[in-house]
Write a structure and sequence with these properties.
The protein is α/β, with parallel strands linked by helices. Helices cover about 35% and strands about 20% of the residues. The chain has 13 helices and twelve strands. The structure holds adenosine-5'-diphosphate and magnesium ion.
Length: about 350
């Protein structure tokens, strides 16, 4: 990998520690996150609701300052940048949220929403140029003919069309990185794949790096086929690597549990995996998270060390990382399969 476009170094984010409740530990939403993203890469960031995905995405987009640690853009700490570099960074890294309706001004036309960033950043010098470029953007994201959409208001579009407009607006400033936080969870199921395909084609055409944040393994698997997956559990990154490799050989007991719990449409395949027996089915309270490895209260294999020390994310094979003290001693994934009963 060349110089990473985005790099997180030991990033921690803690909410509500200071002020009135000084004695409380606060919510450690992100704990010691280390991550490097290459230019043009696709990363799916996956985990259950409340595990810190959005907070991590906000750190990458500069909306959340880490409590400790660093967020680097092209090798520079964004919180120590001069104005020129900061501007470059703010244009270079864009965010797309799940709620396209909230993201667009309801009393402004699509034309206005798209031309505002173009005019603001000097990418269009006149009204006519802005309209031409806005039309180009709509063509790129597949709302054609653009004349049919430019003068509409957000409420006149479907959820899928609105999410395309939000993507077009992010594209207006020619970003290097797009953080897409649950971008299809409010879109009609039938239109989800089309939006994911659109993002994949933007990645291919323009080399834009994507961080795709989702609680849904199935769409992560689809979108990041050629990319990497990072799995979070209660603020900790617990497994990271090329998506195919990680899902073929998941090593962290939490990811193994997630994968055996996913219903598989083919009953023959479903029967091949025994569900990993967890000690507890409940997600612990994030404001009172377990010490050490946060998964130890649910892990069937836990040992004393897991209650004390946070396991670092370490390579188990060249580019496949796992944060588990016991990763080399627990039963490997292939032993979790159950022999098929003969028909
Ligand atoms: N601004 C905030 N103030 C206090 N707690 C927060 C704030 N934002 C998030 N949290 C807490 O941090 C944890 C992680 O939240 P979030 O990053 O939104 O998770 P996810 O996106 O994976 O659902 C949750 O326990 C959440 O309640
Ligand atoms: Mg979220």
């Amino acid at each position: 990998m060349g110089e990473p476009v985005v790099e997180l170094k030991d990033v921690c984010v803690t909410f509500g520690k200071n002020g009135l409740f000084r004695k409380r530990r606060g919510v450690e939403a992100v704990v010691n996150a280390n991550l490097q993203l290459a230019e043009g890469e696709i990363l799916a960031l996956v985990g259950e609701s409340g595990c810190g995905k959005t907070t991590l995405g906000r750190v990458v987009t500069g909306l959340q300052k880490p409590t400790s640690g660093q967020m680097l853009y092209r090798g520079r700490d964004i919180w120590a940048m001069d104005r020129g570099d900061w501007r470059d960074y703010r244009l270079g890294v864009q965010i797309v949220h799940q709620d396209s309706f909230a993201a667009l001004n309801p009393v402004r036309t699509i034309m206005h929403s798209l031309s505002a960033p173009l005019r603001r950043h000097g990418l269009a010098k006149s009204g006519a140029e802005a309209r031409r470029k806005a039309a180009e953007l709509l063509t790129i994201i597949g709302l054609t003919p653009p004349e049919m959409f430019l003068d509409k208001y957000p409420h006149q579009l479907s959820g899928g069309q609105r999410q395309r407009v939000v993507l077009a607006r992010a594209l207006a400033v020619r970003p290097k990185v797009i953080v897409a936080d649950e971008p299809v969870s409010m879109v009609d199921v039938s239109l989800r794949l089309a939006i994911l395909n659109l993002m994949a084609s933007l990645n291919e055409q323009f080399g834009i790096t994507f961080i795709y944040i989702t609680h849904d393994l199935a769409t992560a698997r689809y979108f990041a086929q050629k990319g990497r997956i990072a799995v979070m559990y209660l603020g900790q990154l617990i497994e990271l690597g090329p998506l195919g490799k990680v899902l073929e050989n998941p090593c962290h007991p939490y990811l193994q549990a997630l994968l055996t719990a996913v219903p598989v449409p083919d009953p023959n395949i479903a029967r091949q995996r025994r569900e990993l027996p967890l000690r507890s089915l409940d997600l612990p309270d994030p404001s009172n998270a377990p010490s050490g490895c946060r998964f130890h209260t649910r892990c069937p294999y836990w040992k004393e060390i897991c209650t004390r020390e946070i396991p670092p994310l370490e390579p188990i094979e060249e580019d496949h990382y796992v944060a588990c003290h016991l990763v080399r001693s627990i039963p490997p994934w292939h032993l979790l399969s159950v022999e098929q009963p003969s028909p």
